[in-house]
Write a structure and sequence with these properties.
α5 runs parallel beside α8 and α7 packs parallel to α10. 46% of the residues are buried. The protein is built from 19 helices and eleven strands. It folds into four domains: 168 residues, no CATH class; 132 residues, no CATH class; 110 residues, no CATH class; 47 residues, no CATH class. It is globular. It is an alpha+beta fold. The structure holds adenosine monophosphate and magnesium ion (MG). The site of adenosine monophosphate has 15 residues, from β4.
Length: 504
């Protein structure tokens, strides 16, 4: 594998060389063949003996120039300058087929200068959760870090209880966080801040032509798009501290995350988040709060008025994306409306506005029904898609039977039928075509916490077959697959809406 060390060499001032510290009885327990192929890597490089040697032997290629990065971050709104890679190392970068750098990062690699007396380890439970989440979000079209391989061990690691330690190699365009910029700005290390920006312009934001404003605009946009997707697919990150925010707008640093079970908008997946700062419905506004914190680091380069203007693009970008995703999930996207909202439009504005209003009313009422009934967030979307042709024949009970307030749902179906007919005429579509579009955006399989927990329980006993089966389902979440029915169900009441601790 051709490994680069741009960060380690060009930013040697702001990182520390650290070698991975082996775990006892390590073993490659999961290997991501899809990702290995996508990145043009050789599978044999990641097979057990080869990878363990490469990571832990003196001459190992992957430990030769590994480094821990220094950063800070706003944690639950409080500035903390004492952060950094406390248990993860950048092993090096590779290039993907587009020539773009991709980090190989080892999580759970042992102590670093930034570990703050913690053990530098990750537990098997949290590495499995991160592995599963990366694949699940990616398959839903939500940008995410992804794992190449998971190394299990018998090393005891103490959290709330004794657990098994593990490591994971994950990939991302880079591990540069909002907190990197915040740290070098607030600590007044100007040459380091300059070097960090120069690094980004050279390797990651080439199209910004060294314009700080253009770079921030790009980060604002990608963050808005990512969070819109979280909201549309019911994903609660749980720890949106600025040290967990990627400058590439990809989901990473998974902790006590959860996909919703019941639609409870203010659901909080993180048991330690007592104020609900990172509740599901707070994520869009926290995204802006975090971008605001990041924007401070741009003040030496961009005028305040321009920064404000850049930040003001966040909300419309997020709202547009969210709106078009939820409309699509309900089969209500119209190409002309999308075009109009994107470029001012040349259609009949009054009719378009009226139709857009009707569509939005349907979307709101649908979400209100789910919320009022505390219905599952995912299954009704899928049911609607699967039963669309019954609705076409005005068999509204086919949907309303699954709800408590059946009359309300039937009324919704009456309005829906009318609007779908308009959509079909405008875009020259059949009910069948609308149905196949809906099935392609409404997942049958969702990474719910109870599913992850069952897979983890088996893996703790060295049986990774449930992890692998779950992964297979999640990799094609929109296609019904044989033998996967267990992964399509909502949990029993007792396993719903589990909130997890931050310990990982
Ligand atoms: P997280 O909550 O995982 O985003 O971590 C917050 C900070 O604590 C980061 O700087 C981590 O590197 C560090 N950290 C978390 N867990 C450990 C650990 N077990 N050992 C050392 N550092 C850790
Ligand atoms: Mg983190």
């Amino acid at each position: 594998m051709q490994l680069f060390h741009h960060y380690a060499t060009e930013l040697s001032d702001i990182c520390s060389p650290v070698q991975p510290f082996p775990l006892s009885r390590p073993r490659v327990a999961m290997l991501n063949d899809d990702l290995i192929n996508e990145l043009g890597l050789q599978r044999n490089e990641f097979e057990n003996d080869k990878i363990l040697q490469s990571l832990f032997s003196d001459k190992g290629e992957l430990q030769d120039k590994s480094i821990a990065q220094k950063y800070g971050g706003h944690q639950f709104g409080q500035w903390n300058p004492n952060l950094g890679d406390g248990r993860g190392l950048l092993l090096g970068e590779i290039k993907n087929s587009d020539g773009q750098l991709i980090d190989l990062h080892l999580k759970g690699a042992g102590p670093t200068p930034y570990s703050r007396h913690a053990d530098g380890r990750a537990v098997l439970r949290s590495t499995i959760r991160e592995y599963l989440a990366g694949e699940a979000l990616h398959a839903l079209g939500i940008p995410s870090s992804r794992s190449l391989c998971l190394i299990s061990s018998h090393e005891p690691v103490v959290r709330e209880q004794r657990e098994r330690g593990a490591m994971m190699i994950r990939t991302c365009p880079s591990h540069i966080r909002f907190g990197h910029f915040e740290y070098y700005y607030h600590s007044k290390q100007t040459s380091q801040l300059d070097a960090l920006f120069a690094f980004c312009f050279t390797h990651h934001f080439q199209d910004c032509a060294s314009s700080h404003a253009a770079m921030l605009l790009k980060i604002v946009r990608s963050t808005a798009l990512m969070i819109a997707k979280w909201q549309a697919y019911g994903f609660n990150h749980g720890v949106m501290n600025t040290d967990n925010m990627s400058i590439h707008g990809i989901t990473f640093d998974y902790g006590p995350y959860a996909f919703l079970d019941d639609f409870i908008p203010n659901y909080v997946c993180n048991r330690s988040d007592h104020s609900g700062r990172y509740a599901f419905d707070q994520q869009p506004s926290i995204g802006l709060w975090n971008l605001n914190a990041l924007a401070h680091a741009f003040t030496p380069f961009v005028e305040i008025e321009e920064l404000k203007e850049i930040l003001s693009t966040y909300e419309p970008c997020l709202v547009n994306e969210y709106q078009s995703l939820v409309r699509a999930r309900l089969g209500l996207s119209i190409s002309s409306l999308n075009a109009n909202s994107n470029n001012g439009g040349d259609g009949d504005d009054t009719n378009d506005d009226k139709l857009a209003n009707e569509i939005d009313n349907l979307v709101h009422e649908w979400l209100n029904i789910l919320k009022d009934e505390k219905a599952d967030y995912h299954i009704p979307f899928r049911l609607l898609s699967e039963r669309l042709l019954l609705i076409k024949d005005r068999n509204y009970n086919a949907l309303s039977d699954d709800f408590i307030d059946a009359n309300r749902v039937r009324q919704w179906c009456v309005n829906y039928h009318e609007v779908i007919n308009i959509v079909m005429k405008i875009d020259d579509l059949s009910w069948e075509q609308i149905q196949s579009r809906m099935l392609a955006v409404n997942p049958k399989y969702v990474l719910r916490n109870h599913l992850a927990q069952a897979a983890i329980a088996a893996a703790e006993e060295d049986d990774f077959s449930l992890c692998e089966a779950l992964l297979e389902a999640l990799k094609q979440p929109f296609s019904e697959q044989q033998g996967m029915a267990q992964f399509a169900k909502a949990p029993d009441t007792s396993s719903k809406g589990i909130s997890l601790s931050c310990s990982s």
